[in-house]
Design a protein that fits this description.
single chain; 49 residues; 1 helix; 2 strands; globular
Length: 49
Amino acid sequence: MAVLTIRNVEDAQIAAIAQAHHLELVTRHVSDFKGIEGLTVLNPWQPGI
């Protein structure tokens, strides 16, 4: 079992809601959610997307 460090409760809640509803999380702050298994994160401001 991997141990994750999430910087704040709000990010953890956002990630949990996205996972519970099988949604892709869209944010500029991709690094805040890096390493969360099963979570797909998209940065729409990243060039080439």
